[in-house]
Write a structure and sequence with these properties.
four-stranded antiparallel beta sheet; Alpha-Beta Plaits; 4 strands; single chain; 2 domains
Length: about 270
């Protein structure tokens, strides 16, 4: 049993933290802050507890720089026993969700190209963005800060270029009013992607259920699941209307989300 020691527990409210991707971004942002003993996340409650020795102002500054609407709730002196996080278990989980996201990036990109669906192509880039975050998290677990920042810059620029190119294609198709995409492929592939995202979130929740007591309902509130649902809805609207406009609208929205995610990743490379 670890010996107790006196330490500071600072609680932050983070309004825009609603899925493991944001959690991993926060972990990477705080990775090189000295004196942090443990991070304890409550994603459904959008709360982060930081157990640390000093540098509260630096921690607060790093969190605010992510633009997740973070604010310090309180900072108290507590008895701390340590433990609670298993780096090897975290590494295995990150490899699992990384593989799933990369696989569905390929599946959705190919399906979107064959079905002529910008919604699926945009969703595939969202999967790639998540894979990039999980990959960077693996570096944070076992790699140096300098290497992590370099990879972050490369990942952010690649995502930004792909998302901007996709957005430009949405504009071109909107002006040209091309034929509607294959709604059946849109719906089927998006349902499979939703199931994959749900499984990833389940794994991440299960690994920390004893620490943060996360609720299964968090699966249905994550951005990834909402995006999958948006593409499914677009497929249904394409079926009902015979128009490709719903697909273009959803594609444009998701491309904007990916661009914002790329900007956040680029901040980690500074």
């Amino acid at each position: 049993m670890a010996a107790k020691k006196t330490i500071t527990k600072s609680t932050f409210k983070i309004e825009k933290m609603d899925c493991p991707s944001e959690e991993n971004m926060i972990r990477m942002k705080l990775d090189d802050v000295p004196g942090i003993e443990q991070l304890e996340f409550d994603i459904p409650g959008r709360t982060l507890h930081v157990y640390h020795k000093e540098h509260l102002a630096l921690i607060d500054e790093r969190l605010r720089s992510l633009n997740y609407n973070s604010s310090l709730v309180d900072s108290l002196t507590v008895d701390f026993e340590g433990g609670g996080e298993n780096p090897e278990q975290q590494r295995r989980l990150l490899w699992t969700v990384l593989a799933i996201n990369l696989a569905f990036f390929i599946i959705e990109m190919l399906s979107g190209w064959l079905a002529d669906s910008m919604g699926l192509i945009a969703d595939s880039l969202d999967m790639l963005a998540d894979a990039g975050v999980y990959g960077l998290s693996l570096l944070a677990v076992g790699g140096g800060a300098l290497l992590k920042k370099r990879i972050a810059r490369i990942s952010g620029y690649v995502q930004m270029i792909l998302a901007l190119a996709g957005f430009a294609e949405v504009v071109r198709r909107f002006i040209g009013l091309e034929e509607a995409p294959d709604f059946q492929v849109m719906i089927i592939v998006s349902v499979l992607a939703l199931m994959a995202n749900g499984y990833c979130l389940y794994l991440l929740q299960k690994s920390k259920s004893e620490e943060a007591h996360m609720q299964a309902s968090m699966i249905f509130t994550s951005n990834d699941v909402i995006i999958n649902g948006g593409v499914i809805l677009a497929g249904v609207l394409v079926l009902l209307s015979g128009s490709g406009l719903p697909d273009l609208i959803v594609g444009a929205i998701v491309f904007v989300i990916v661009i914002r995610g790329a900007l956040n990743i680029l901040k980690l490379g500074k």
